[in-house]
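Dear support,

I submitted the protein below through the web form. The confirmation email said the job was done, but the results page showed an empty box. After a refresh the structure appeared. I'm attaching both so you can tell me whether what I see now is the final result or a partial one.
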Amino acid sequence: MEESVNKAETGSTSYSTDIRALNERIEKESAFIDLLRMEMDKVIVGQKYMVDRLLIGLLADGHILLEGVPGLAKTLAINTLSKCVQADFSRIQFTPDLLPADLLGTMIYNQQKAEFVVRKGPLFSNFILADEINRAPAKVQSALLEAMQEKQVTIGDTTYPLPTPFLVLATQNPLEQEGTYPLPEAQLDRFMLKVVIGYPNKEDEKRIVRSNISPSGMLKPSPIIKPEDILKARKVVREVYMDEKIEQYIIDIVFATRYPDQYKLAEYKHLITYGGSPRASINLALAAKAYAFIKRRGYVIPEDVRAVAHDVMRHRIGISYEAEAENMTTEEIITGILNVVEVP
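What the results page shows now:
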């Protein structure tokens, strides 16, 4: 990518000026990212990776599926982000007896007015934490995922738009699988990112303990920006320059999951049952642009694509029984693809 930018600079003067001007503009427009990180760091310790992925989802208008054991600050992270953005936050605990109306809302009878009125559900917020989404039956999951895709909800005969920005962070517990309803592949594909988070290191955990037992209590984040600023930033993210070679690189990565034998990866052919959909290509490009934006850069480089590839692709590749027998994971398959596909 740097080579293509250099070529642009040595070629057309006006084109190089455009690239330089775009880079300067995005560096200015993304200044709030550092402030946002600083405020979140006051509360969220040792989860920089998760925080960055939350910002990518927020800036690229994509929802996130988060997998991790309990107690890793998943709820705290999205709650803190909502306070920094001065936005509404709802936490929905998914259980086997949950109904779609518990999310979307319903019609209730008003005796004084002698008519039915709408009572909107918790889904009408900017930030939604869908806790343990795989504990609710398919009907509830479908209602949530339809709202995520359409950004609207129908109650009775009326359709209501959801507030903007609208970000869903759904969590899955990788430990307890009894009594769960795993998300179908078609629904998994609607999440831009699937982020797997682990335990903090010793130093970070020491800081976590200190902040929680301190007499003054945990620090509270300050509001940094407003929801309308996020909507403005999303438009700027889409203006981040992506060279045609980077586009081809993204297409090659996704096609390598579908036709591995065409990319000198014949050994993966019997390990992959299905590869990434066109939505994978779209989300990989958008996530790479958002990653470049949070790095305060006006153009995408191959490292941006590689940085988000695992999060975008890990839930979009099906592995066969042979792969499971060989203890081959989607992580290893994605890494193998990234090592083989030619970098521009």
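Response: this is the final, complete result; the empty box was a page-load delay. Residues 44-227 form a domain with the Rossmann fold fold (CATH 3.40.50.300).
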